[in-house]
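Appendix B. Worked example

We walk through a single record from start to finish. Start with the input: the chain for Death domain-containing protein, Pocillopora damicornis, length 177.
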Amino acid sequence: MDGKKRKDFALPDSIKTSIQSIPLNSGSDVKDIVIQFQEALQLKATSMAIPEPETKSMIRDLALRAKSEKRDDLVRHLRDITPAGTTGPLLNEDMSVGCMPYKQYEELTFSLSGGDEWKLLAERLGLSQIQIRFLDKRVTNPSDVVLSAVGKHRHLSVGEIYDTLVDCELPAIADLM
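Next comes the structure step. The output line below is what the pipeline stores for this chain.
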């Protein structure tokens, strides 16, 4: 991910067990998991609504674990109780951006291309100001061109784009993935 790797955090066994043992789609159960998560890590009550950077990493790791256990209900609950840009993408983080489902890809590129947001992403992905200016005046959906062009030269993952959008202070757009 742009030369930086997220710091991994080992989830407590009690949280792993909770995620694996609680039936899917049970709202109270996902709330119990979050409470266990907060207790196991000795987090404050406000830590989910206003997480510190280290807490964000822990929440992201919990969301990754939940996804690996097919606990979409937990991931969606975490998204409901944490700020945008905290849980990571709903899609597989290693998925190539070019393999994203069409509707999500379209929503992502349209959201970025509606204003100048795409320029922040393009710059972070290594496009020069000359390239950005060229695309700005000639292309209807410049973020599509940027993602396609970069994706042709190297692996461009959903997780990398998610993290880049969060770094660009575009967490709501990141959460479209």
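Two observations about the output. The chain has ten helices and no strands. The chain has two domains: 13-81, 97-176.
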